[in-house]
Design goal:
7 helices; about 10% strand; mainly alpha; D-Maltodextrin-Binding Protein, domain 2; about 45% helix
C-alpha cells in the first residue's frame, strides 16, 4: 500500500514534469528568428518566405526576419545557415534546387548532415519553353511529348530527364 507521502511525492514529480515540459515548449522562440532565403528578393521563394514569416510572427509573438542571400545556385545562403549555430534561430528557406545543386557542383555543405527539414511550404510547377522557330518537339530526345506535362510539375523531373 502506498502511503500519503509517496502519493504526494509522485503527484509533485508529475506536476513538475508537466510544468517543465510546458515551459520548454513555450521558450521557442525567445528571440528574433532569422529566415535566410537563398533566392533573390521579389521571387516566389521570397514572397512565400515573407508570408510565412509574417504568419509565424503573429502566431508566436516573436520577430521573424527574412534575409535574402542569393547566388551560386543557392549555395551562398545554404552555407551561411549550415555554419550557423544549430539552435533553431537561423532557418533556411530554399527551393528544391538546394538538394539538386550538390549533384551538379561541389558545395560546402552536406544536405543530409547539415540540415534538418522542418516544413514544406508548397510545390511549384516549372515550365520549359522555347522559341517556336526552334524545331525541337520536346525537352530531350528521350522524353516523349506525352511526358512534357510531368516535366513541368517539378524541377526534379526536369533535372532527371535532362541528365539521364
Amino acid at each position: 500500500m502506498v502511503g500519503n507521502r509517496a502519493r504526494v511525492a509522485l503527484l509533485l514529480a508529475i506536476t513538475t514534469c508537466c510544468i517543465t515540459t510546458t515551459a520548454i515548449a513555450q521558450q521557442y522562440p525567445s528571440r528574433t528568428v532569422r529566415m535566410v532565403v537563398a533566392a533573390p528578393p521579389g521571387g516566389l521563394t521570397d514572397i512565400v518566405a515573407r508570408s510565412v514569416a509574417q504568419f509565424l510572427q503573429e502566431k508566436l509573438g516573436q520577430a521573424f526576419v527574412v534575409e535574402n542571400i542569393a547566388g551560386a545556385s543557392s549555395t551562398i545562403g545554404a552555407v551561411q545557415v549550415a555554419r550557423s549555430a544549430p539552435d533553431g534561430y537561423t532557418l533556411l528557406v530554399n527551393p528544391s534546387l538546394f538538394v539538386i545543386t550538390p549533384m551538379l557542383m561541389s558545395v560546402q555543405y552536406d544536405v543530409a548532415k547539415d540540415f534538418t527539414p522542418i516544413s514544406n511550404f508548397g510545390t511549384v510547377p516549372i515550365a520549359v519553353g522555347i522559341n517556336p522557330a526552334i524545331p525541337a518537339k520536346n525537352a530531350h530526345p528521350s522524353v516523349p511529348p506525352s511526358n512534357v506535362e510531368a516535366l513541368t510539375k517539378c524541377i526534379d523531373h526536369v533535372v532527371g530527364a535532362l541528365t539521364a
